[in-house]
Specification:
globular; 166 residues; alpha+beta; 8-stranded mixed beta sheet; 8 strands; 5 helices; Aminopeptidase
Amino acid sequence: MLGGAVLSVGLRLEPWTPAERDVWRRLNNDVRVVRYMGDGQVDPEETERLFDKILALNAEPDPRFLGLWAVWEGAAPVGMAELKYTEHTAAGEVELIYALLPEVQGRGLGAALLDALLEVARGLELSALATVHPDNAPSLRVLERAGFTRAEPLEDGTLVLRWAAP
């Protein structure tokens, strides 16, 4: 797993620590965020289980996970980001996942965060994949502006976008 900070303009990506549990809860228990993730349902117990799993993975890395980060803007955590191999990724490809708190959305941080994640993928000579809820127009715009192209959607209608490393 990649350690340390990954820098982007105005943002830092740091491995999760117990101190960021509150921002994890805020992200994963806010219907404005989770409506675009997984089954779209808020589940406080699952939120806690997932955070504990992330802390465990940061302590004892699993090769499927390249990075599990809290996203910081200045002195405040404002989101999450992941790079990992999943059932959707092909050889030489990593899935990227990101989410930002609603109060910081719409300020260009999603594009900056995506740039940082793609820089990591590029440095590892990996292509990238993103799965996106079809109603998540802001995320689709950010991904397509960054050069992602649409691929065959998943069976549940989730959109798949791919980016080829230059």
